[in-house]
Amino acid sequence: MLAPEDVPPTSNTLLIHTAKTTPRMSLTPEEISEAIRIFSKSQVMEYIQLGFQTFFLYYWLTTIATEVNLMWPRRWRWGKALFLINRYLPIMHHVTNILTGFRGYIVLDPKVHPNCILF
Question: Which key words are in the record (predicted)?
């Protein structure tokens, strides 16, 4: 007979494993400090990413006048199309990333209902 560690994971063994391990509602101090460390690193990375995206937006805004004067009056050719794709596709990517990629931070009142589940 195989030991539980030797059994390849299937849906049945995962159900049995999760049924045997009951979730704890409290964390050890080590787990809390690890969660804080991971959260702090991810928050720093978000700030760095936001700084780069802000710089990119600043660069784009300061060069828009030159683009309007030089590129917009030209006839449509491959060079103009490639320039505009190269210019506006990253902006759409950055805007989408800012709108969907950052977490929303909510400050809750200390008297939150006890049955409220926070994710």
Answer: Membrane, Transmembrane, Transmembrane helix
